[in-house]
DNA sequence: CTGTATCCAGGGTGATACTG
DNA sequence: CAGTATCACCCTGGATACAG
């Protein structure tokens, strides 16, 4: 069983390596956005729902549960009525957030170039 | 039509913003790995297939086509027999590669912490 | 307010076989 | 070698309604 990728260390290129699964877990736009949103402090469920435009209650909960399970997000429940729940990044989550947020920012910054590339690609297909 | 997110600039949190679609396109483990693999220079189709362990021909081609369409990868065909095709990152792709590769590296670096978090989470569920 | 419970459509993904 | 074509299938992800 080489699931640890030993003795050469972890290698995400190997499908049996745990780091491959971690990478897969991170490959979700809702994970990106959730972690990025929490980057500047704790937020309530409703706040997140409004910030992550278009997310359904199910996906929001599901995403938060995964992040909580993997130690990236901490969930705090206040036993009051109506319910009050807050989410915040753990130290590990904050470490990751710096990277994920850069990707988000990159996506925003390079829209024009990508849009342009797509237009050129389409033209090429028309000619053919 | 606020698809450009104007007048406040692009915002990936808004589902109608083009940057949201870009983020979604990047949310794929095969995109991560393909771009990371190409980071150190051009590669042939077969080389990529071997490097990206477990990828099917279909997914490899599909991923490369998306990256090519969006201007992140350049495809060069040598008209010889047997066929010879090489892929390499464009300038835009290299810019992105730096970020994506950091995520990949992060995934490898933090496996122990995440594994540990999962174990604790499981224990919690058992108690309940 | 913060979720859970269903249901459902759709397509991403893989496996396989095959062609130029 | 590089890629296409097909098929099936899971299962994600969305919509909705409802509960504590």
UniProtKB/TrEMBL annotation, chains A, B:
<dbReference type="InterPro" id="IPR036390">
    <property type="entry name" value="WH_DNA-bd_sf"/>
</dbReference>
<protein>
    <submittedName>
        <fullName>HxlR family transcriptional regulator</fullName>
    </submittedName>
</protein>
<dbReference type="InterPro" id="IPR002577">
    <property type="entry name" value="HTH_HxlR"/>
</dbReference>
<keyword id="KW-0805">Transcription regulation</keyword>
<keyword id="KW-0804">Transcription</keyword>
<keyword id="KW-0238">DNA-binding</keyword>
<dbReference type="Pfam" id="PF01638">
    <property type="entry name" value="HxlR"/>
</dbReference>
<feature type="domain" description="HTH hxlR-type">
    <location>
        <begin position="17"/>
        <end position="115"/>
    </location>
</feature>
<dbReference type="GO" id="GO:0003677">
    <property type="term" value="F:DNA binding"/>
</dbReference>
<dbReference type="InterPro" id="IPR036388">
    <property type="entry name" value="WH-like_DNA-bd_sf"/>
</dbReference>
